[in-house]
Design a protein that fits this description.
This protein is α/β, with parallel strands linked by helices. The chain has helices spanning 6-16, 19-26, 33-40, 89-99, 113-119, 135-148, 166-171, 205-214, 227-235, 257-268, 283-291, 301-333; strands spanning 45-47, 62-64, 67-69, 73-75, 103-105, 125-129, 152-156, 186-187, 193-194, 219-224, 240-244, 274-277, 296-299, 346-348. Helix 11 links the parallel strand 12 and strand 13.
Length: 355
C-alpha cells in the first residue's frame, strides 16, 4: 500500500537507506531538543476555521522574489542528495519543475548548479550559499549561479561553526563516498579540485553589503531567529527572510521555527516577505505558518525521504501530497487562497492534549 503521509514515507525511507545516511539526514545537534520541537510545536497550534464563506475553489499560487510558484511550498536547500538517490539533485530539480514550485539548490549539492538548472526550471531556481572566507572564490560561485539562471541567492547566516551531531560521530560519518563531492565547491582555478565548505565565525552585515555590491540578484537570508535581526535585515536591503533554526542541526535548545515566527512577523510588519523552514509535515502545518505571518514554507527532510523512495517520482509525491492537504485545509478554513489567512484562524493550546 502506498504511503499516505510524509511520516509513513520517512518510515519507509529509513528502512531503505543505509543507517548512517538516514541518521545524517534525520539527525540534529546535541540532545536534538530543537529537532523534536520543530514538529511538536505545530501540535500546540490549533486551527479555528470559518464557515458559510461560499468559497468553492482555491487558488494556491504565490509570487516570491519575482518567481511564480503554484503553491506556497518551496524545496529547501539540503545537502548531498546523491546519498539518497543516484540522480541526486537532478531528480529533485525535475520534480520541483513538474510541481511548478521553487527549488533552493544547496551549495553543498552533489550535482553542479549548472546541471541542476538544466534538469529543472531555472526560472524557479534559487541558490543557497555560505559566504566563504575567500570572497573571491565566493564571488566565483555567485557568478556560476547567475550564469545558470538562478533567480535569487539564499545566504545561510546561522552557522558560525558546525553543529555537533552525535549520530554522525557515533556512525563515523565524516566524508562522502568516493566519486561524490560538493560539486559547487570545485575550484576551477586549481584544477577543479573541490574545496571544503568553511563556516565563517566573523560573518557580519559587512559581508551582506559586499554580496549586494557584487550581484543584482535578490538576496534572502536564512537562519533568522531574533526579531531585532529581522528588523536589521529589513532596513539593510535584504529582500526576504527564512525563519529557520537549521532544522535543529546547529544550536540545540533554540525554540521551534513556528514559535519564532510570530514575533519576527510583528517586527518586520510586512516590509519584506517571510518564509518558514522547519517541521512542516502536513498541509495543516502550512496553514498555521501562513496564518502566523509566513508567505510560504520550505521543506527539507521530506524531500529527501521521497527521493530515497522513488527519485523524481518520490519527490513529486511529497509535493503533491502537501498540495492536496493544503488545499483541503484551506477549504475547511473557508479560505479561497493562502492570502485570506490571518492570526484569527489559529489558537495556541495550553497543552498538546487540549482540543
Amino acid at each position: 500500500m502506498p504511503a499516505l503521509s510524509l511520516r509513513e514515507m520517512e518510515s519507509e525511507a529509513r528502512r531503505r537507506l543505509d543507517p548512517a545516511v538516514y541518521d545524517f539526514f534525520a539527525g540534529g545537534a546535541d540532545d536534538e531538543i530543537t529537532l523534536r520541537a520543530n514538529e511538536a510545536a505545530f501540535r500546540r497550534v490549533g486551527l479555528v476555521p470559518r464557515v458559510l464563506r461560499g468559497e468553492t475553489e482555491r487558488e494556491l499560487g504565490t509570487t516570491l522574489l519575482g518567481c511564480r510558484s503554484s503553491m506556497p511550498v518551496l524545496v529547501a536547500p539540503t545537502a548531498f542528495h546523491r546519498l539518497a538517490h543516484a540522480e541526486g539533485e537532478l531528480a529533485t530539480a525535475r520534480a520541483a519543475a513538474s510541481a511548478r514550485t521553487i527549488m533552493v539548490a544547496s551549495m553543498a549539492s552533489t550535482r553542479a548548479i549548472e546541471e541542476i538548472a538544466a534538469a529543472g526550471d531555472p526560472s524557479s531556481l534559487w541558490f543557497q550559499i555560505y559566504i566563504q572566507p575567500d570572497l573571491g572564490f565566493t564571488e566565483s560561485i555567485v557568478r556560476r549561479a547567475e550564469a545558470a539562471g538562478c533567480k535569487a541567492l539564499v545566504v545561510s547566516v546561522d552557522s558560525p561553526a558546525f553543529g555537533r551531531r552525535e549520530r554522525d560521530l557515533r556512525n563515523g560519518f565524516v566524508d562522502l563516498p568516493a566519486g561524490m563531492c560538493c560539486e559547487n565547491m570545485r575550484d576551477h582555478g586549481n584544477g577543479g579540485r573541490p574545496r571544503p565548505i568553511v563556516f565563517a565565525p566573523d560573518l557580519s552585515w559587512k559581508h551582506m553589503e559586499w554580496l549586494r555590491s557584487v550581484t543584482n540578484l535578490p538576496i534572502a537570508i536564512k537562519g533568522v531567529m531574533h526579531p531585532e535581526d529581522a528588523c536589521l535585515a529589513a532596513g539593510r536591503g535584504i529582500d526576504a527572510l527564512l525563519v529557520s533554526n537549521h532544522g535543529g542541526r546547529q544550536l540545540d535548545t533554540v525554540p521551534a521555527a513556528i514559535e519564532l515566527l510570530p514575533p519576527i512577523a510583528d517586527a518586520v510588519a510586512g516590509r519584506i516577505p517571510l518564509l518558514l523552514d522547519g517541521g512542516i509535515r502536513r498541509g495543516t502545518d502550512i496553514v498555521k505558518a501562513l496564518a502566523l505571518g509566513a508567505r510560504a514554507v520550505a521543506i527539507g527532510r521530506p524531500v529527501l525521504w521521497g527521493l530515497a523512495l522513488a527519485g523524481q517520482q518520490g519527490v513529486e509525491q511529497v509535493l503533491e501530497m502537501l498540495r492536496s492537504e493544503l488545499d483541503r485545509a484551506l477549504a475547511f478554513c473557508g479560505c479561497g487562497s493562502p492570502g485570506a489567512l490571518s492570526r484569527d484562524f489559529v489558537m495556541l493550546r495550553r497543552s498538546e492534549g487540549q482540543c
